[in-house]
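Q: I'm a student working through a structural biology exercise. My instructor gave each of us a protein and asked us to get a predicted structure, then write a short paragraph describing it. Mine is Signal peptidase complex subunit 2. I'm not confident about reading structure output yet, so if you can add a plain explanation after the tokens, that would really help. Here is the sequence I was given:
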Amino acid sequence: MEEKKAESTNKNVKKANLLEHNSIKHILDESVSDIVKSCGYKEDVRLSNMKLILGTVIIVVALVAQFYNKNMTDYIYWMIVDKMFGFFDYGKYVVLNGVLQLILYTKEKNAILFTYPPEGSFTSTGLVVSSKLPRFSDEYTLTIDSADPKSISAGKSVHLTKSVTQWFTKDGVLVEGLFWKDVEALIKDYAKEGEPKKKK
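A: Happy to help. First, here is the predicted structure for Signal peptidase complex subunit 2. I'll explain a few features afterward.
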């Protein structure tokens, strides 16, 4: 019986390679996403879906541009379609790929999670949760910001910067209780910033 408990707890343990910062960041980001969702925020996947659709269009354009067999009888039809829609050559592929990269650069940045506002909340904006773990550094920065910073109900951006050594054991196991407490405190700080001030 005790062996089964030990096995089940070992399955839930999140372990990272401490010599690889991408492994550490991945585990922390995954945990942050779970914590934010457990606080009542639902994930907003609209940007992800838009990127998938645009990526699919880019792949189709590239495949058509590469493998379409242009016979002389189809050549006139092909030119008409190409000029009307302007999609089926390599230049258009590069332009569409550039649009995708522009979306990633301007909208996503370091974001790991976009959310809707929690149900029953007075705010009309969700969260943008982003993180940074620079190369050759142990300082993990977690930022919670409003999904719509121009909104009246948008709270001020809050940050948490700590060394990852405070959340991992020597063996690379994430001490989830400590990390959970820090992230929940940051979410509460953001919620306090967004609350309307009472007049005296």
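A: Here are two points you could use in your paragraph. The beta strands are 111-114, 127-132, 139-146, 158-163. Residues 21-47+109-192 form one domain. It's a good idea to check both against the output above yourself.
Q: Great, thank you!
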